[in-house]
Amino acid sequence: MEKKINLRKTIITIIAFIVSIAFLLPFIWMLSTSFKIEADVFKFPIEWIPKRWNGIENYKEVWLGKYPFALYYWNSIKITVITTLISVTVSAMAAYGFSKVNFPAGKFLFIIVLATFMVPQQSILVPQFILYRYLGLFDSHIGLILLGSFSVLGTFMLRQFFMGIHSDYIDAAKIDGAGHFRIFWSIALPIVRPAIATYGILRFIWTWNDYQNPLIFLRTDGLYTIQLAMQKFTSLNGEFYSLIMAAAVSSILPLIIVFIIGQKQVIEGIALGGVKG
Amino acid sequence: MNIEAKTVFEKVDVEVKVKKKKSAIQKRESLTGILFVSPMLIGVSVLTLLPILATFLLSFADWNFIVGFNSIKFVGLDNFKALFENEVFLKSVLNNLLFLLTVPLSMLFSLIIAIVIDKHVYAKSYFKVAFFMPYISSIVAIAVVWQVLFNPTEGPINQLLFSLGIDNPPTWIADPDFALISVMVIQIWASIGFSMIIYLAGLQSIPKELYEAADMDGARAWDKFKHIMLPVLSPTTFFLLITGIIGTFKVFDLIAVLTKGGPINSTTMLVWHLYESAFVNLKIGYASAIAVVLFFFVLIITLVQWVGQKKWVNY
What we know:
The complex is a heterodimer of chains A (277) and B (315).
Chain A: H1 2-33, H2 55-64, H3 69-100, H4 104-115, H5 125-135, H6 141-148, H7 152-163, H8 167-175, H9 180-191, H10 193-209, H11 212-217, H12 226-237, H13 241-261, H14 263-273
Helix pairs in contact in A: 1-13, 2-13, 3-6, 3-7, 3-10, 7-10, 8-9, 10-14, 12-13
Chain B: H1 3-58, E1 61-62, E2 73-74, H2 78-85, H3 87-99, H4 102-119, H5 124-136, H6 139-149, H7 156-163, H8 179-204, H9 208-216, H10 221-249, H11 253-258, H12 270-280, H13 284-311
């Protein structure tokens, strides 16, 4: 009996593996193309392992060439890291305020914040654009960072965790004379650290991958993020697919690293929070 | 003053003090609460609440923001009239509705994959990562890769079709009849990983006892699927359906990078039309009217979720 089940499981694993390859194939093709010379890109049948190796030259051109990815990488890293830090801080504070500080207006304010959750971000792009032009935040990294810093989703996710903290902890700390800021910092935050990590990683991935906001709120070439640069690069290099693929590989590399490090967190976070925003 | 009266007075005195103290504490607590939530509140007010009001206001206006506030002109419902007379807008709505098909298809595939991964394979974590790859990759990178894969003459997909003896394969995103379907295929491919993870979480929450009881009753796999999995997964299915539908109304990156709404508007969508109207053609009022329509689409679906989760979902 045991053996029979194992055989079945093995066969299903093999079938699933073949299906999964279909999901990975575009990525494998992208990776392999990024190491080729241009003339071999469309060779058929596909050379999965390049015969004529041009990897170093391709990546050098992408990173340090006329349109240097090093700069856009730096922009993206800066924006993503700062946005993530601010967003986590703002969300954690709001989540604590809405769940552990007992004030009558809190419930009402929470409903207002929650209500904004269903506003599709694209519905408010035009006024945001106009507002930014008047405030002088248009075409700046600060403006872009602010756009990503007030996530209702983050507040909502973290609030669930803060609510799970037993109020005895907080009452005990209060009796010992600790104020809310003290309690927030040294009791509540350490308890919800895994949730913070989860949200932080998700916010990192979303911000890194954001294309729409940089497209609308940035004009100056030197301020571009990796996603904008990717597209500009594609339109400039038109037919140089080996270079475009090297750029694409470069642009998703940080995500893969972050994902490998925080795999459990990412998957749990997705399962828990669900929505992409 | 007799003793009784004195104690009563003292009592009242203490009560007043306690009340005073309580209200002082309550005041402090309120102040602290406001301090904690104010960064989020200010951000949400300035960057979401104010703009949503402005969107509604601007949808009734004719305005070119480059000229300044003086030139703003209120035109009533003209923008909305213009919307429903504009073929591109109608095409966008139609495309968005067709695009809805990606939601159930993607859900069906991810449910099958999730069930297989959950119980029937070795190396689960490999499969989780493999199917999840498109979700963590940026849409821009994905779109660029597919653009090349779909290349009509040299792309690997058509080369394969040529080699199989198909002389006139579709030109995919270059062909108005096939472009939307091509984009939908990519969307399904890219969204399966997300739904799969959610379904996996749902499957793992099914109590083992249910299966054990079913086994004792001699239930077949199909019965277990129909009478245990589907009902238990109904909240998950409902959640994915709603978020998926809302997601299709917000599709932008894929269109912007892959097709720019073309060829001949065959892949235009609400948000793409909004973007073009506002930031390419600078028709602020008209674009705001699209934004209002988008807002109501999402609002209606969200309300359906609120009402529906009580009726259709099995918790």
